[in-house]
């Protein structure tokens, strides 16, 4: 059966996104087993830094340094464009937020991306958009040709368990490039203990935030498309990575070039 077209989006950068719902896709998600030992939902082809950033189902081989950043750029552009068109709140997190702080771009050594949503948003995505495929049309920046990629929004059925558990399912959802398996990790935040600690939010990987650090969210731009970041983004980054992360100009074999405002790989002219 062919997918049913459910939504047509006008994308920036001369791109268009088309959301495709898979009939009967609810049957593709396994039922939650009645056990405290949750099996891992998302699987990667390996556990190291090289292989741990691909979805096993779509992995065809490691994407080289010269190509991975362009793939990540299309990942985040498509994700932010589709979520905005759907009216779904999401914001940049972790290393992706740090890349935004430096120059509004992905760090060249990153091989995946991170965003966050609320637990209520996760439930909404799981109820209405789980296992939907999204076709994203874009212009190749090198050739000028029109190309198309298809992305999968996959919500982990264990997202409803807001405790860390055995640590196998701290990632609540993923936005996955079906051409190579590269992905955006999506994690949900919920109030940790609203009775004793109201206004304190946490994900299953023990990152905690005050409501006043998150809201009101700030609208900005990342990789050429509209994006959202937490209100106290600087304090969040300092708490997670240290103050040095906002000033150190050498990292992961790259140097910050203040003339062009970009990270440049050491040894490159």
Measured as a percent range, the helix fraction is: 10-25%
- pLDDT < 50 stretches: 1-35
Q: How large is the count of helical segments?
A: 5
Q: What fraction of the residues are assigned to beta strands by DSSP?
A: 25-35%
Shape: globular
Distance between the termini: 52 Å
Q: Average pLDDT across residues?
A: 87
Structural class: alpha+beta
Rg from Cα: 19 Å
> How many strand segments?
15
Task: Tell me what you see in this structure.
The protein has 269 residues and is an alpha+beta fold. The protein has one domain. It is 20% helix and 31% strand. The strands form three sheets. Strands 1, 2, 3, 4, 5, 6, 7, 8, 9 and 10 form a ten-stranded mixed β-sheet that branches. It has a three-stranded antiparallel β-sheet with strand order 13-14-15, with no helix packed on it. It has a two-stranded antiparallel ribbon with strand order 11-12. α2 packs across α5. The longest helix is centred in the N-terminal third of the chain and has 22 residues. It is globular, with a radius of gyration of 19 Å. It starts with a strand and ends with a strand. The N terminus is likely disordered.
